[in-house]
Amino acid sequence: MLPLQECLSPHVAMAQRDHVRLDWREPYQTLERVRSTRWTCACRATVYELCEGGGRAFIRRTLQLDDGYKIHETHRWSIAEARAVWTDILSGHAR
Fold first, then answer.
1. Is 49 exposed, middle or buried, given 0-12, 13-18 or 19+ CB atoms closer than 10 A?
2. What residue ranges do the domains of the chain occupy?
3. Cα(86)–Cα(95) distance, rounded to whole angstroms?
4. What pLDDT does residue 28 have?
């Protein structure tokens, strides 16, 4: 694990007591062209990505496990809505 001063991507704050619980689902293909535009540091067990494409966006959550990965995604929002949720995740107001 890298020391925090060497990490280049942001870290997620601890979940706040009154945080919003997001509905995490198994990944499914709905957008033909999607790309990660923002992500959290991979030095933590859980990595979040803001994924955008075709005017829609969602959050992808990857749990890094000893035996592989477990990936979940939110439903699709407008890009503006997804960016607001992204900010809430980083600040601990959503999980």
1. buried
2. 21-91
3. 10
4. 79
Three-state SS annotation for 50-84: EEEECCEEEEEEEEEECCEEEEEECCCEEHHHHHH
Highest mean pLDDT among 3-7, 32-36, 40-44: 40-44
What's residue 2's pLDDT?
47
Q: What is the C-alpha separation between 57 and 88, in angstroms, rounded?
A: 15
Q: Which helix (H) or strand (E) holds 89?
A: helix 79-91
Q: In 3D, which of 42, 52, 45 has the Cα closest to residue 10? A: 42
- B/e letters for 67-80, b = 16+ CB within 10 Å, e = fewer, are eeeeeebbebeebe
Q: pLDDT grade, residue 31 (50/70/90)?
A: low
